[in-house]
Amino acid sequence: MINDNSGLLKLVLSILLFPTFFQEAFVLFAWGASDPFWVMMSKRIFLLLPALAIILGCWLTVACTLTVVFRPNRQAFVTELFITWWDLGKSIAAFGGGIFKFVFNLFITLLSALKVAVLGIWALIQEVVLMPLRLLGNAGRGVVGSTVPWIAVCLTLFWCLLEGVIFTYVTTPLIVDTFSNITGDNLSINMVRIPLFVFLLFVVLGSYAVLSTFVDSFKKKSISTIIGIGVVEIVVLFVEVIFLYREFVDALVPWFAQYSENFELGVFWTLAISAFVWFGIRSLSWILFAAHGTPTIMAVIQGKGLALAKRRESASLPRSPLSTNFMNKIKEDMIWIQKAGDDLLASFILPPLQVIAAAMNFCTLLVSGKHLFELPLKSMADAIPIGTREKPEPKIVNENRTTRHEALTHIK
């Protein structure tokens, strides 16, 4: 159409329609249909949007130039037009650099996310693998730091069970023979062992209870109590020596006879050795653990409760960071992932949005003579149009100060 005219009209049309001279070449070059795949994709990513924005800016500049005649403030409008082109140039430069920035942020974010995932999996594995050890450590700290002698209690109960098992095994033949002679029936060993074990367990526990009471009577220096518990202790000694420890010594007689000729132990030495064994076992077990475990067991049985002393303040052992801070670390990682995702999304959207906002400024400049966006866009909040942004509420303190100042001025 331009070539069909001549003279001044051709010059005017060439000026008004100058984008037609290069827009097709711009679009074809930026589209790159005949180029290799990687070149074509690079052109479409880096050049297509800026080329379209430049072409749109040229056409809108022509339209803005035609409206200069009717503008009331022509100088300011032309200045805004030049500023719009300057913003478009900065937006195109920021668009190219923003793509590289997005790729770099994507690479860093992926590495950081991989690091968080690996450390999270490793922490989870440690949490699962070390949980039994940590539970044992907490239990050990609870037992060691407790005012209740749990170790002594457990050892006392274990020793009573052990003595009950040994004496059950030793005295079972005697009990079976005795009850068989009384009833005239052959009793089963398995039927006798369970009630016999329970009976002997209570006998051993009662022996330690009597010994504990005997020691407490000496601490209180009560003569009558000492005599009474002493008589009970002698009876306990007699019962255990005659019925338990004597059988234990009799079981060892074949071993003694194996290494001597014409060996006869006799009643006196049998009872003496039995009493000596009883005294040795009771003394060792009492000094080692029963002196502390037996009073606790008796307090529980009697329902008196445990007199817990105030725990001495001491430096606590360091807790495992995996168990105490594991959930907090997960929450911190989730917050970081959310923030990194927002930053990555902003770095992906802002570069093309810069160019689109600059092109939109040409449109609003033509219609209203003002820019719609304030460039450059530094965050997603800047992508909100200027006229639709929420204005900050005025501070009440400042209003009160202003009102007071006006009141003072009025009085003066």
Structural class: mainly alpha
The percent of residues in helical segments reads over 70%
Query: What is the tally of beta strands?
Result: 0
Q: Give the integer mean of the pLDDT values.
A: 78
N-to-C SSE string, H for helix and E for strand:
HHHHHHHHHHHHH
End-to-end CA span: 76 Å
- Tally of distinct domains: 2
What fraction of the residues are assigned to beta strands by DSSP? under 5%
Total count of helical runs of at least 4 residues: 13
- Largest beta sheet, briefly? none
Low-confidence stretches: 309-322, 395-405, 407-412
Overall body shape: rod-shaped
Rg, alpha carbons: 50 Å
Which helices and strands appear, and what pairs or packs with what?
Layout: H1 8-16, H2 23-31, H3 37-46, H4 48-66, H5 74-129, H6 131-145, H7 150-183, H8 189-220, H9 223-258, H10 266-302, H11 321-324, H12 326-368, H13 396-411
Question: How would you sum up this structure, described in words?
Answer:
By secondary structure, the protein is mainly alpha-helical. It has two domains: 47-129 and 329-411, no CATH class; 148-307, no CATH class. Helix content is 78%, strand content 0%. The protein has 13 helices and no strands. Helix 4 (48-66) packs parallel to helix 12.
Spell out the key features of this protein.
about 400 residues, mainly alpha, 13 helices, about 80% helix, rod-shaped, disordered C terminus
